[in-house]
Specification:
11 strands, alpha+beta
Length: 194
């Protein structure tokens, strides 16, 4: 029976927790194969301590709590909270919580994190800081020239997608920013959170 000493590099991601480290282990082998040693038993120990961050709390549209692990930014919270309104009807001039127009939706969800945005797309575009399209982060607002300059807005949620109230007769939905219609009308993005 041979004893081997291995240096094992680990990288685990469990529920938003990443543990990186090295451990040393002893392994008893019972035989060799073409692929390597057959390990009969191991003893693995480590001195790493992993602390799970406290949960952050925000209220969803029904007043219940939506929880997210630490490391989440306010932008991620805005993006997650906006999901609660998918399927809500578009009503021109509405600011929720049962119906929205595009700037009403963005003003409403940002209000939940303490940021007051005007209920007008052009004014929202003049606030915050400019963001390049290739640097978008969840929670950024994306603007489009749909029926005029800076005439539509939505909340970027990541992966090239945004949530918005698209127009009369439609409901709050998720759309692809790279879709031909929205891609050709993209006007810019603004960031209001760090």
């Amino acid at each position: 029976m041979k004893k081997f000493r291995f240096l094992i590099f680990t990288g685990l991601c469990l529920g938003g927790i990443t543990v990186l480290g090295t451990q040393t282990t002893n392994a008893d082998t019972t035989g060799n194969t073409k692929k390597g040693a057959v390990i009969k038993s191991t003893t693995l120990s480590t001195k790493k301590i992993v602390t799970v961050p406290e949960k952050e709390k925000i209220k969803d549209s029904k007043g219940s709590l939506a929880l997210s692990r630490g490391g989440s930014t306010q932008g991620n919270q805005v993006a997650a909270y906006t999901h609660n309104f998918i399927g809500s009807p578009y009503v021109w001039g509405a600011m929720g919580p049962k119906a929205f127009d595009c700037s009403g939706l963005t003003a409403f969800v940002y209000g939940k994190v303490g940021i007051s945005l005007p209920h007008y797309t052009g004014s929202q575009f003049s606030m915050g800081s400019s963001v390049q399209r290739n640097d978008l982060k969840p929670g950024d607002l994306v603007f489009f020239n749909t029926y005029g300059p800076i005439s539509h807005v939505g909340v970027y949620i990541g992966g090239g997608e945004f949530i918005h109230a698209p127009g009369s007769g439609k409901k709050v939905t998720i759309s692809d920013i790279n879709n031909g219609y929205y891609s050709s009308r993209y006007a810019g993005a603004r960031r209001y959170l760090n």
